[in-house]
């Protein structure tokens, strides 16, 4: 049966050949081999196309000269079928050719090859052939897309996508092989049957073509090449360029500005479509075409295949804390320039906040920092972010947990502890849109949280550390401070620049070694003396005016710190030098990983509260010293003998003795009022604010009510912010009034010696002018104190 069909096929093509020979258009003088005359055509018809370029070009010209309208419809259909089998593979046929203006250099291969059918073909056959021709365009475009995206620079997600598309093209190629076999072996194989078999594939390849076109149109290969070239530069290249004079900061800045301008000019982002952006496009197309079951199934299969490398990277990150992302496809990035060397200088603020971050710049609080350096611009205003900065929609809600799960494990690894997550893994693969992936992320986040929390609370003794901070900064046992102030009285009376930190530190160590024992002596070697660059109340007022509240925005507070210190240093040249007692504060050394909880920002809050309490303690001590001074004879000795009776003053004159007694009583009364005010503020801050809030935090930690590290960090910062707020250090109005009152009290205490001297001179002999001056000075203190004290 097959042999008879083969003979029939040979007879048909011999008739066609004889028709060509008898055609007057044919030039017998041109000795050109024809595929019809080849005996091997029936066995391997594709071999006839594997010839030299000159022969192919010559044959094409011949085909253009021949007309099909003189041939029977059966022969036309057979020739077009033979051409279509080649064209569907991307090979030009004899009657289905490229357009006349086709140029390989000008055409974009990612748009696919375009073919036209000979106009001499029967209209019914030509219409049917033109319906099939888009398959050739789709196939060539998809093939070019796969070849282009298989380059290393496009990352693992693109590689997996191309592999899945290549598998689908294998099915298409298998179909073509089967159609070729049917064409060779069955005389009843017609163009209508070919259309019937390829029609379902046409829809599939059209979906792949639309996907490849969208990915190619959003891509920026020029920017991608420049980005990859810049990322591949290493330290040796930078050093060599610097030595050759090509790596200066100014030159780099100019080149960066040129690149930035060129990118903004052509609207490109400079990052190839890869990683999460590819998955986001796939997910978006799958959602938009959810009404088409075939399209949804196709894009779903591609999403699963392309998402496998992404899921693998996520699982490695959340299970081991290692970021294996060689092509920057994951939504998490690592700043490798921040290493353990920087931790000694700035603890772990840099490490914790900027070593591992999300590429889109978002934070757990919901804020975005896309304006900062390193955060790429979106493809279009309000559009999706490019490359790995685009988070797949299925993982948008889980990105912060993914970040923190790996970050916590990485912190544990930095401590020299193996941090692998040994949770049982299923044998079945986990896909990007699988509910099991969300459970894996949540379980890994919970495991990392508990592991790090156990490390902090048990191994690193977090609670004793916090108790020591309370003891030294909140002055819960302040005998050491009183001893220290007595020992360093003379040194603290100097200006802040003149005071010796070495001497102050030695005196603090002496006070701590003398007055602390047992548990109170824990971690005392970590307490250090330092001098602030600005006054407490000026600094607080500036920060409150900038950020609204202390700790409302850590970045704003940190920025305002530097600005305030610079402004303060400039003002110091024109103003009186600040005393060491006004700039004195404590610092606290914390090792990693405790510095995650007791960070520089939290220590700043501790220092603010300590300076607030220190000023109160110092003013209280000064007023107490003034009370001791008021027990001297100058203040207690009567102005007239006890045997004398009060003389009646002459009209128009005042009784000097009664007036002097009233003046001394008024001084006593003002000192008592100031001391009561300071002691009430101190008692309120310690017993009504600090102690209750500390008990709440300590109770949570000891009762195990803190389940995650995030909650621990949040509770610690909230505790300090609450203390600052309830101590009235976050209201500009209260701060201004409070600072004036404290300055008035401390200045009044400084007038102890002048007042005593004036009282002694008055007992020896006084004049009305001296008494008036005495009352004038006291009146200024009373008026100032009463004014600020009466403010609501």
From TrEMBL:
Signal peptide: none annotated. InterPro entries: GCP, GCP_C, GCP_C_sf, GCP_N. One of its GO terms (molecular function) is gamma-tubulin binding. Keywords: Cytoplasm, Cytoskeleton, Microtubule. It comes from the Eukaryota. Residues 219-241, 363-383, 635-655 are annotated as: Disordered. GO terms for cellular component: gamma-tubulin complex; microtubule; mitotic spindle pole body; spindle pole. It is found in: Cytoplasm, Cytoskeleton, Microtubule organizing center. Residues 462-786 form the Gamma tubulin complex component C-terminal domain. It holds the Pfam family GCP_C_terminal. GO terms for biological process: cytoplasmic microtubule organization; meiotic cell cycle; microtubule nucleation; mitotic cell cycle; spindle assembly. Residues 81-457 form the Gamma tubulin complex component protein N-terminal domain. Belongs to the TUBGCP family. PANTHER family: GAMMA TUBULIN COMPLEX PROTEIN, GAMMA-TUBULIN COMPLEX COMPONENT 2. This is Spindle pole body component.
